[in-house]
Amino acid sequence: MIDHVCLVVNNLEESRKYYERILNMESRESKTDSKTILLENKEVHFFITERDFPREYIKMQHISIQTESIEAKKQELVEKGVTELTVGEFRQFRYHNYKWIEWRDPDGIRLEYVELI
């Protein structure tokens, strides 16, 4: 199992505010790197770090967050102003297939909630 990831973003403060608002995350600066922020809530934790990379590289990143109900998460996202949502199902794994709902953050990083089926 993968415990966490570090996403590369172009603007640390903009991303911090976005994730705090959209995913109800708490944030704090890393003790070892002022360009890295730790983000967490009860469902997931990850890092974001600021680098001056091309947008096309940044957009290639993808993070999935498992949830009990993507319908409940869809409602939360809509209430927070996330309107460009895509939904679907992924059935190519042997053990962990899922329904998903995805959107993009301000840097274009693909975010998704997944519900196991």
- Helix proportion range: 10-25%
CATH-scheme architecture = Roll
Listing every helix as H and every strand as E from the N terminus to the C terminus, the arrangement reads EHEEEHEHEEE
CATH class: Alpha Beta
Chain oligomer state: single chain
Strand order of the largest sheet: 1-4-3-2
Rounded Rg: 14 Å
Q: What is the straight-line distance between the termini?
A: 18 Å
Low-confidence stretches: none
Largest sheet: 4 strands, mixed
* CATH H-level homologous superfamily name: 2,3-Dihydroxybiphenyl 1,2-Dioxygenase, domain 1
Shape: globular
Instruction: Find the CATH topology.
Output: 2,3-Dihydroxybiphenyl 1,2-Dioxygenase, domain 1
What is the number of beta strands? 8
What would you note in describing this structure?
The protein is of the alpha/beta class and 117 residues long. It has one domain: 2,3-Dihydroxybiphenyl 1,2-Dioxygenase, domain 1, CATH 3.10.180. 22% of the residues lie in helices and 37% in strands. The chain has three helices and eight strands. It has a four-stranded mixed beta sheet with strand order 1-4-3-2, with helices on one face. It has a four-stranded mixed beta sheet with strand order 5-8-7-6, covered by helices on one side. The model has no long low-confidence stretch (mean pLDDT 94).
